[in-house]
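Shall we go through a protein fold together, starting from nothing but its sequence? Please make up or recall a protein chain and show it to me in full. Go ahead whenever you are ready, and we will take it from there.
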Amino acid sequence: MIVLNHNMLDGKIVLLTGAGGGIGFEAAKAFVELGAKVLIAEVDQEKGEQATTYEPLFCLALLTGLRQGELCALTWDDIDFEAKTLSVNKTLVYSKNIGEESASYKFNPPKTQKGNRTIPLTNEAIVVLRKQKAQCEWLKSQIGTRDNLTPVKGFENLVFYTRMTTPVCERSIVAAIKAALRRINKNRAEDEPEFAYFTPHTLRHTFATRCFESGMQPKTLQELLGHNSLEMTMGLYTHVIEEMKQREVEKITLTGLSPIGVKLALKTGEKKLLSRKSP
C-alpha cells in the first residue's frame, strides 16, 4: 500500500511505500495534491487576509492518530507546549437537540473508556500547533471587522475553526476533501487517473500503520489510539502485521552463502534431526 508522511518543516506531503491496506495509490496521491494545492493557505499581503486552512488539522491527525471528533474538540487548555503533550478528554458532535428540531454543537465524552488519554507530541507536532495558534489569534482579531465571522458561544477556545470562526465538524472536513478532489480531478491531465474519495478516518489508519512499521509495541499503540482492548487494535491491523511478517521473512535467503556454508547448514540440520529421533 501507499501510506502518507507529512513533513511540516518543508510544507510538503510525500508518499512512503509500506505495508497495510485501506488506502490505495489514487487516494494517497489525491491527499498529496490536497496538501499541495488546497489545504495549505497563504496570507494575501495586499488584502491583509488569510485563507482558512485545514492543513494543521490534517497534519496533527497524521502525527497523533486522533479521531476526527477528538481533533475537532481540542481546546488550547488541552495542549501543554512545555511538557509536549496533548490531552484527549472529549469529542465534538453536531446533533439535534432533544425534543427540538434545531441542532447544535456539543462536547461529549470520548468514544471509549480508554479514550481519555495523554498523547506525547513530537517536535513536528509542536510546530503544527504553534502555526495553528497563530492562525487562530489572527482570525479572532478579525471578529467585529467582518460580518461573516460568527463564533459560537461556549466554543471560543477551540484549536480548530472554520473560516467563519465556527467549530469544525467531520462534515466540514468531508466537504473540504470532496471539494478538493473535484478541483483536482477537473484539472488533471487526460492521461492521469481520476482520484478516488477517501474518508478523514484514513489519516488515523495511516498513523497506526506507520507506528506498526516503525516497530512500536502493540500495547503502546492501543493506548495512543484509545482502544479499550489490545484485541481491538490487533484485530483492526491484522493485515498490517501479516504483511510485515511476510516482508521480514523474505529477507531470509541462501543467496550469498558459499557452497560450503550451505552444506554445513544442511549437515547441522540433519544432525539435529537425528538427535531428536534417537531414544
About this structure: The longest strand covers residues 2-7.
